[in-house]
């Protein structure tokens, strides 16, 4: 039997409801793991173990008192430190806001609390969810980056410190750390989750998301955030999903191992009898990565100008460069980038005409060595620009044992179908 901290959120909830364990036992297991590993991994910005245990013990008593259990009753979770909490500081990864204490919880945090989930702490983010890394190391090899900007969230889930974590994405801040740390992540269709109480960087690109170790947990988290009942998993016994590989305009910029991971995943899925194929990348998609950079820079330069102006020496060179580049983006260039996004979105019906999801790279390769940077967001930028739902799935390792993975892309607004297919794909790849 797996240790309690190694269980999925779904399994933890099931065992608590069945009376096979208690929220305090679950929390104790996670806190023991954190005590053993946090000095090396550095996933947490704020950790209040006493408060977490206090909440867990209070949750122990609720069934005795006849209180209905929420769908996440007793399930621990962690929160990226750009997401407001009313009892923990939210510093946005910046010295400027080191002592910032929000008055209320972000909508996502409150929704999880109302569902019975128990927060462990706030996880490390890059400064303003951009490029300057924090202290977090990759739990698979402490000399390597965990990715960013949801660095601590991905590391905490990967290292069995928490089964669920909130993160966010503007370029690749969910998918890339999930790929580097060997966990799953879900970025919904842009606007799919409420961003109230989440620091903004780029108004048309920012998206709240979730990290976990299984797609079933992503489905559970989505249902809770949307106030929906947990849906049954799709039955693919008779009609298997339709999946197309799309190499994309940057295929040759990734490592050989990354390309091999994608083709091996497609071969494994084809062996199940699924309808698989390959689709060519439209030539205009080659310009979408630069369009995302243009849009993000333009919007960030306006959203975070006050920090740039007042931050002085506390602002990193990376963030200063983002704002300066964004200030130089003309209204015309911004409008042209948005127009390109619109034209590309009009082509998506053709891309998805004969498939449920696209299988694409999730990162250029395994996590790079060093903690001075968080890796290249190259393979998520255009999908984030197009505001499509995405799921990161781990698949295999490189020669050094570091995780590799793939990314599945769904139709805009068809998040439920994407997650159903992703759950099926994860199951098939586990068997491969």
From TrEMBL:
Residues in Amidase domain copies: 26-419
SUPFAM superfamilies for the chain: Amidase signature (AS) enzymes
Superkingdom assignment: Bacteria
Protein name (database record): Amidase
């Amino acid at each position: 039997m797996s240790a309690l901290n190694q269980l999925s959120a779904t399994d933890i909830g099931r065992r608590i409801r069945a009376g096979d364990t208690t929220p305090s036992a679950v929390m104790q297991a996670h806190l023991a793991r954190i005590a053993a590993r946090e000095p090396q991994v550095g996933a947490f910005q704020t950790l209040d173990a006493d408060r977490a245990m206090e909440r867990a013990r209070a949750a122990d008593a609720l069934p005795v008192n006849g209180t209905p259990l929420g769908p996440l009753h007793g399930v621990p979770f962690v929160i990226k430190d750009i997401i407001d909490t009313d009892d923990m500081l939210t510093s946005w990864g910046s010295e400027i806001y080191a002592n910032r204490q929000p008055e209320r919880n972000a909508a996502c945090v409150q929704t999880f609390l109302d569902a019975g989930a128990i927060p462990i702490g706030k996880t490390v983010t890059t400064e303003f969810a951009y490029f300057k890394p924090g202290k977090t190391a990759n739990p698979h090899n402490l000399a390597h980056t965990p990715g960013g900007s949801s660095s601590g969230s991905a590391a905490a889930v990967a290292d069995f410190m928490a089964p669920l974590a909130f993160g966010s994405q503007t370029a690749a801040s969910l998918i890339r750390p999930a790929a580097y740390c060997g966990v799953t992540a879900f970025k919904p269709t842009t606007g799919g989750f409420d961003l109230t109480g989440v620091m903004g960087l780029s108004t048309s690109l920012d998206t709240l998301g979730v990290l976990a170790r299984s797609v079933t947990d992503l489905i559970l988290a989505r249902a809770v955030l949307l106030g929906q009942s947990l849906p049954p998993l799709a039955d693919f016994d008779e009609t298997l999903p339709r999946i197309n590989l799309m190499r994309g305009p940057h295929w040759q910029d990734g490592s050989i191992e990354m390309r091999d991971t994608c083709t091996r995943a497609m071969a494994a899925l084809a062996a199940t009898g699924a309808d698989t194929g390959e689709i060519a990348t439209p030539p205009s998609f080659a310009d979408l990565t630069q369009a995302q950079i243009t849009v993000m820079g333009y919007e960030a330069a306006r959203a975070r100008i006050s920090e740039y102006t007042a931050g002085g020496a506390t602002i990193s060179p990376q963030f200063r460069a983002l704002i300066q580049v964004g200030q130089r983006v003309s209204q015309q260039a911004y409008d042209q980038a948005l127009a390109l996004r619109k034209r590309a979105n009009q082509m998506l019906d053709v891309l998805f005409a004969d498939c449920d999801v696209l299988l694409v790279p999730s990162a250029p390769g395994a996590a790079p060595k060093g903690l001075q940077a968080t890796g290249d967001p190259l393979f998520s930028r255009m999908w984030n620009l197009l505001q499509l739902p995405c799921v990161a799935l781990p698949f295999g390792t490189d020669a050094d044992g570091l995780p590799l993975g793939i990314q599945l892309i769904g139709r805009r607004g068809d998040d439920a179908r994407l997650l159903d297919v992703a759950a099926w794909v994860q199951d098939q790849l586990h068997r491969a």
